[in-house]
Design a protein that fits this description.
The chain has 363 residues and is an alpha/beta fold. The chain has a domain at 65-170 and 255-300: 3-Layer(aba) Sandwich (Rossmann fold). 39% of the residues lie in helices and 19% in strands. The protein has 16 helices and eleven strands. The chain starts with 9 loop residues before the first helix and ends in a 5-residue tail after the last helix. The chain binds iron/sulfur cluster. Iron/sulfur cluster binds next to helix 15.
Length: 363
């Protein structure tokens, strides 16, 4: 397949592995931010290609995984309101809250629909003016422009039966939180290429300087990731801490200016709790005052107290790169994709799901 097979070439992968062996002189720990990269690494066994001094740890870049349990509970309560059509990406339906998941609320009779875009939810609102349609707005900077576009469009058309349960999060504050943590062991990042197609990578430059950490904007195919690792290790070995762009076929430094403008018009930066991690300052997006009418939390007045995670789930440590899924006592026993205890076992981008799918034998 064009633009895929050439990035999965085994001979080229072997050359990167050789280059890495040549340049690596000591132990380094790298974090890939994005859950899509984690799945590629585990699926293709890329970590097994690397010199043994290089350790890859998995980051918080799975939006389903980091949506806080309180927002899941708010989603369950909102979806159960009579007359509401609750629209969500499919991955969110099985994420456990404290009282259940969206799938169980749906089984109880709620009108919960899987959509592929917030614009699908807006279309439902347009077609059913007698119903309240709520979109569960989950995701990083990658999906935020589409959510912003849906709100912009709803306001332009005067559609009032549409609202958002907003859970959008931002990558750079999470990177800073990881680097600031006392238990941090991350020495370089592979940043998520798709986030940078929207936001560019100028935001990462102060982080690289402040924490003396190389950041390589990296794609998602095996050769992208191996090249990203090679670039990061070369920087570490040479004592450099810069932002480099491996994913130059898709990413420019300044990113997508119209998409950023749309995000800024609709959203403001707010504090956000990350599941398993806790609150990170200035790490989320919330609706600006002129668009507060579209805030489902205000519209339905659903209040949620702070909740505790399952004590058996260590997904917070996994999302911060401190532990690996197989170090969780519940992995493959009490916690499986059929009966997940934590979101990282549910999501198609979750690290626990990746290890369950590709690494159960021999770990
Ligand atoms: S295996 Fe299950 S319980 Fe353990 S960290 Fe992953 S999601 Fe949580």
């Amino acid at each position: 397949m064009k633009f895929m097979n050439e990035y999965r070439d085994a001979a080229a992968a072997g050359k990167y592995a050789q280059a890495l062996r040549r340049i690596t002189t000591r132990a380094w720990t790298l974090m890939e931010i994005c859950g899509g990269q984690t799945h590629a690494i585990v699926k293709f066994g890329l970590d097994e290609f690397l010199p043994e001094q290089i350790t890859l740890v998995h980051g918080p870049g799975c939006p389903v995984c980091v949506t806080p349990i309180e927002l899941i509970e708010k989603a369950l309560a909102t979806a159960a309101v009579p007359g509401v059509v609750f629209c969500s990406f499919g991955d969110m339906l099985r994420v456990p809250g404290q009282s259940g998941d969206l799938l169980s609320v749906k089984a109880g009779g709620a009108d919960i629909r899987i959509v592929y875009s917030p614009l699908d939810a807006l279309k439902i609102a347009r077609e059913h003016p007698d119903r309240q349609v709520v979109f569960f707005a989950v995701g990083f900077e990658t999906t935020a422009p589409m959510t912003a576009l849906a709100v912009h469009q709803a306001a332009r058309e005067g559609i009032r039966n549409f609202s958002l349960l907003v859970a959008h999060v931002l990558v750079p504050p999470a990177m800073e939180a990881i680097l600031s943590a006392p238990e941090n062991r991350v020495q370089a990042f592979l940043a998520a290429g798709h986030v940078c197609t929207v936001m560019g990578y100028h935001e990462y430059e102060p982080i690289a300087r402040k924490y003396r950490v190389p950041i390589v904007i990296t794609g998602f195919e095996p050769l992208d990731i191996l090249q990203g690792i090679t670039m990061a290790v070369r920087q570490l070995e040479e004592g450099r801490a810069e932002v480099e762009n491996q994913y130059s076929r898709a990413v420019r430094r300044e990113g997508n200016a119209p998409a950023q403008k749309l995000i800024r018009e609709i959203f403001q930066v707010v504090p956000r709790k990350w599941r398993g991690v806790g609150e990170i300052a200035q790490s989320g997006l919330g609706l600006r005052d002129p668009y507060k009418d579209y805030d489902a939390e205000l519209r339905f007045g659903i209040v949620q107290q702070s909740l505790e995670e399952s004590p058996d789930c260590i997904s917070g440590l996994i999302l911060q790169g401190v532990k690996k899924p197989f170090e969780c006592p519940a992995f493959t026993g009490a916690c499986t994709p059929e009966h997940p205890l934590g979101a990282t076992m549910v999501s198609s981008e979750g690290a626990c799901a990746a290890y369950y799918r590709y690494r159960r034998v021999g770990i």
